[in-house]
Amino acid sequence: MTRQIPYVNLQAQFDAERDELMPLIEACLAGGHYVGGEAIAAFEVKAAALCGCDHAVALNSGTDALVFAMLALGIGAGDEVITPPNSFVASTAAVMHIGATPVFVDVRDDQNIDPDLIEAAVTPKTKAIMPVHLTGRIADMAPILEIAARHGLAVIEDAAQSVGSLYDGRPAGSLGTAGCFSAHPLKNLNACGDSGFLTTNDADLAEQVRLLRNHGLVDRDTVTRFGGVSRMDSLQAVILNYRLGRLDEVTAARRRNAARYRELLNSQWVFMPPCRNVEFNTFHTFVIQVDRRDELRDHLTKAGIGTGIHYPVPIHLQPAAEMLGHGHGDFPMCERQAGRILTLPVNQSLNQDDIAYVAERVNDFFASVVD
Ligand SMILES: Cc1ncc(COP(=O)(O)O)c(C=O)c1O
């Protein structure tokens, strides 16, 4: 039977935590507090501490964290937000959702927004820069923050993929005006359903987001601004509070797996963006860039190895983005990467032998097809 290396293994994660987690879930269900309450308050304290921020607001998704950050900052119709075109679609969708215009800026070889190209995209309508810390690697924030300060722009970190990552010792979510995190089941810090949160040092922004997540209610009967409903479920907060206690283990396992790939994959065929001194990468994904990507992917699938492509179609080329008027060639680095990127399994349930098996299959493939 072919060995199986799953891309994700949420069952293995739950199996390892079942004995400790089930009593906590049962206590929550028996306690009858399903919305708000202690678990949410505890999560917000822990999440703020993890991200080195004064405030964390528990929400039901990373997408709503992005939407609410912009709404709280007064961004809307007629405004522009600078963001890369190679994120999960939610970054751009959030900008579209509030009626603002996403202004795309191409990326560097590490798949993150290229700070050298940002200045040229700033116009009188620009209100914010939204870098995405893709794959667990924080975007190059020093020049981004400098440009933002010079033009009076907010910086909204899309930190959905980078919980626990550091840039020059500073945590994701603490670098900009607000940090927007997802705790979707596939993320490093994951709930058993949709969840997310926002971090900030701005007390007023945090307060606005608290209102927006709960219909704008300041008390039972008074609405000061119309909001929505995007509260994190108490049950998810119970799960996340427990998993926050194991996040260091998860991060260490992913970093170990990534380091092993870097050691074993043949750099003659496989491009892996170099690690900068300033970064502590949590490897939400481990993305390589290769020629003959689709053939390699088939080869790995036959060897029982699960892979992904994050993301095969850049956002500016999606049918939904047609009204923005972009075409092929507008963001050459992002477009070139879309045909070359392949995400290898790096999840914490894999051991060093599993990683060696994947690396060998990748190297075998290139040895067999390249002269
Ligand atoms: C970069 C990025 N931004 C935003 C999101 C949206 O998060 P959520 O799925 O929690 O709404 C995700 C989730 O996959 C993401 O990867």
Would you kindly provide a written description of the structure presented here, covering whatever features stand out?
With 371 residues, this protein is α/β, with parallel strands linked by helices. The protein has 2 domains: 10-105 and 112-244, 3-Layer(aba) Sandwich (Aspartate Aminotransferase, domain 2), CATH 3.40.640; 247-369, Aspartate Aminotransferase, domain 1 (Alpha-Beta Complex). Helices cover 37% and strands 14% of the residues. It is built from 11 helices and 14 strands. The chain has helices at residues 10-31, 38-50, 62-72, 90-97, 141-151, 203-212, 234-244, 247-264, 293-302, 332-338, 352-369; strands at 55-59, 80-83, 101-104, 126-129, 154-158, 166-167, 170-171, 178-182, 196-200, 217-219, 222-223, 279-280, 286-289, 341-344. Strands 1-9-8-5-4-2-3 form a 7-stranded mixed beta sheet, sandwiched between helices. A 3-stranded antiparallel beta sheet has the order 7-6-12, with no helix packed on it. A hairpin with a 2-residue loop joins strand 10 and strand 11. The longest helix is centred in the N-terminal third of the chain and has 22 residues, at 10-31. The radius of gyration is 21 Å and the shape is globular. The site of pyridoxal-5'-phosphate has 15 residues, from helix 3 and helix 4.
Layout of helices and strands, plus pairs?
Layout (H helix, E strand, L loop, with lengths): L9 H22 L6 H13 L4 E5 L2 H11 L7 E4 L6 H8 L3 E4 L21 E4 L11 H11 L2 E5 L7 E2 L2 E2 L6 E5 L13 E5 L2 H10 L4 E3 L2 E2 L10 H11 L2 H18 L14 E2 L5 E4 L3 H10 L29 H7 L2 E4 L7 H18 L2
Parallel strand pairs: 2-3, 2-4, 4-5, 5-8
Antiparallel strand pairs: 1-9, 6-7, 6-12, 8-9, 10-11, 13-14
Helix pairs in contact: 1-7, 2-7, 3-4, 3-6, 8-11
The chain binds pyridoxal-5'-phosphate (PLP).
